[in-house]
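Local shape tokens

___
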Amino acid sequence: MSIVLTEAAADQVRRQLQRRGAGFGLRVSLKRTGCSGWAYVVDYADAVEVNDEVFEQHGVNVVVDRDLLPRLEGMSLDYAREGLHAAFKFHNPNVKESCGCGESVSF
């Protein structure tokens, strides 16, 4: 099982961790919300919990709760600038549909 982090995303995570001054890596999670049911959550990972899986991509650790892996397996996470906006972009082959505003997905 794996989650892929592009070089652009890894560079952004490294910059954020450097600014923060601490952190083990990036935690990728899901929460129930929105019209389609699930939203991605990206946060700092300061520690690895018992139920966590760790993936290393381009020198950056990506931490995911094992219970979420069936929904996140094969996902790639990119970081892109579009005009004045910059954000992480999720490309998940497990998504069945997403809401019109793009804030939530269903599996």
In short: The chain has two helices and nine strands.
